[in-house]
Specification:
Elements: H1 2-25, H2 47-67, H3 70-102, H4 106-128, H5 134-155, H6 158-169
Helix pairs in contact: 4-5
């Protein structure tokens, strides 16, 4: 009888320990996700190491795509399209919030949309240019971003510029 109770007790202890271990394995919302560039940012990789990692990433992507069936590739493409659609919808919501917070006129809103679209197109061209090293892309993107900010500020009044600064400092707060 003692052996049965000891066995049951040991089983309960082990099952509790195993349940505890499985919860500890999950390390957050990105558990099981691929590494991104930010995860390597503090490693101070050399240009050669970055190039090798990019090549490994490309090879991995090609191998994965070679394994997938046409239906699976179509599902991936659909998921990507869905993500882009959701991003566009959220982007529109953010712009409407910004328009309301800054009290933009229709003319200002149209001009800002135009500037944002121009910025996205130019940034996309810079990112797509494989002739540029990553550091060169970063420098060009920083310059483009600075130019974009100055163009946006040029079309805003001083009060709107201050409101925009406040929004950037506290993006989750609503400016009234």
């Amino acid at each position: 009888m003692k052996k049965i109770f000891a066995t049951i007790a040991m089983g309960l202890i082990l099952s509790g320990a195993m349940a505890q271990d499985s919860t500890q394995l999950k390390k957050g919302p990105h558990h099981g996700k691929h590494f991104n560039r930010a995860s390597f940012a503090d490693l101070q990789l050399t240009a050669d190491q970055k190039k090798q990692l990019a090549q490994l990433h490309q090879e991995h992507h090609e191998k994965v795509m070679a394994i997938l069936s046409p239906e699976q590739k179509a599902k991936l493409a659909q998921r990507k399209a869905d993500r882009q659609k959701a991003f566009a919808a959220n982007s529109e919501k953010r712009f409407e919030h910004l328009k309301k917070a800054l009290k933009l006129t229709d003319d200002q809103a149209d001009k800002m949309k135009s500037l944002n679209e121009k910025y996205r197109e130019e940034a996309g061209l810079i990112r797509a240019n494989k002739q540029l090293a990553e550091a060169q892309q970063r420098v060009q993107l920083q310059k483009l971003s600075a130019d974009h900010r100055s163009e946006v500020n040029a079309m805003l009044s001083a009060e709107q510029q201050e409101t925009l600064r406040q929004l950037k400092q506290h993006p989750k707060r609503t400016v009234r």
